[in-house]
Amino acid sequence: MFLSLLSKANCQPQDVAVPAQETPKMGLVQSLTAGRTIAAAAVAEGDSCEFGSMKYFALCGLGGVLSCGITHTAVVPLDLVKCRIQVDPAKYKGVFHGFKVTLKEDGMRGLAKGWAPTFFGYSIQGLCKFGLYEVFKVLYSDMIGEENSYLYRTWLYLAASASAEFFADIGLSPMEAAKVKIQTTPGYANTLRECWPRIMREEGVNGFYKSLVPLWMRQIPYTMMKFACFERTVELLYKYVVPKPRSECSKPEQLVVTFAAGYIAGVFCAIVSHPADTVVSKLNQEKGSTALEAAKKLGMAGLWKGLTPRIVMIGTLTALQWFIYDAFKVAMHMPRPPPPEMPESLKKKLAAQGKA
């Protein structure tokens, strides 16, 4: 299925150079490159790959592995305290109190509980999230056409990110189940090697996927906000805040804009997805419980427990993820899309209607 998507999105041969003055051929990548609209700038000399090639999508996936795997693992201590506040607020009364209790009971090593399933799970998720986002963005653009891709670009970002996250969570769910068990169930397991066999023995395959639906409920809105808000924030920052066009900004200046847009997107992501995140934590802690039962047990106030540390965590995470992802593209000399511009054909239509 993934290969089919890639083949549909990959609209031009990888080994054929397109002369700069040649009339654009039919096909999404050529038309978007020529029009400099939603998906790509013209291929510049020195790029390591063509936009829309298999190598391009593979590198996007690798950038996602680095951005998600590294950042989520780095904030494991904060994530651990956040999960414990969610499932046992009577014991862990706040962020600082949660750290204090954890250090007292488990020592410094206790703050790293769950690092292995976090690293592997979110690396898999990042591979699918960023790699497939680029694939679906190109695929859906091809389906609706260049002009609609510009006019309805926010909906395009939402649809592409939701589709990518659907598959990403299937890869994440088994590791997320193990992570929450290790972090919130005392005495259950201390390592991934101990945890996985026990989940399989006691709950079967369902133990790895029982929280998949609430995980979708948490991650899909989160990712839709993460990508759509980021893309539009970047566009607005270059239009209204940055004092010069993106093409005149140095690479470090562009990465600063990337970080700022990522943090803004991250704050909204945390708020939108937090209730489902709390349900996921509670569900993986208790055997035999359903998402609805967990939500009822938590109550409305309980669903928002741990929001402050999550805003800090997700805001920082999202900003760093976009920074690492964009920096990886720069380091690998990959094509990097400019802010979207209105296609010439649409400009002519609007001018003819007196709306330009």
Descriptive account of the structure:
The chain is mainly α and 356 residues long. The chain has a single domain (53-338), classed as Mitochondrial carrier fold, CATH 1.50.40. Helix content is 73%, strand content 0%. It is built from 15 helices and no strands. It has helices at residues 2-9, 28-35, 54-74, 76-87, 95-110, 115-144, 146-151, 153-184, 192-203, 206-209, 212-241, 251-285, 291-303, 307-331, 344-352. Helix 8 (153-184) packs across helix 11 (212-241). It is elongated. Residues 11-42 have low confidence and may be disordered. Keywords: Membrane, Mitochondrion, Mitochondrion inner membrane, Repeat, Transit peptide, Transmembrane, Transmembrane helix, Transport. Solcar repeats lie at residues 55-139, 152-236, 253-331. GO terms for molecular function: phosphate transmembrane transporter activity.
Topology:
Layout lengths: L1 H8 L18 H8 L18 H21 L1 H12 L7 H16 L4 H30 L1 H6 L1 H32 L7 H12 L2 H4 L2 H30 L9 H35 L5 H13 L3 H25 L12 H9 L4
Helix pairs in contact: 1-6, 3-6, 3-14, 4-5, 4-12, 6-8, 8-9, 8-11, 11-12, 12-13, 12-14
Biggest sheet details:
none
Order of helices and strands: HHHHHHHHHHHHHHH
CATH architecture: Alpha/alpha barrel
Our count of helices gives 15
**CATH-defined topology:** Mitochondrial carrier fold
Name the overall outline: elongated
Name given to the CATH homologous superfamily = Mitochondrial carrier domain
Count of discrete domains: 1
CA-based gyration radius: 22 Å
Note the gap between the termini.
Answer: 42 Å
**Would you tell me the overall average pLDDT?**
83
How much of the sequence lies in strands comes to under 5%
Q: How many strands?
A: 0
CATH class value: Mainly Alpha
- Which blocks of ≥5 consecutive residues have pLDDT under 50? 11-42
Structural class: mainly alpha
Give the % helix.
Answer: over 70%
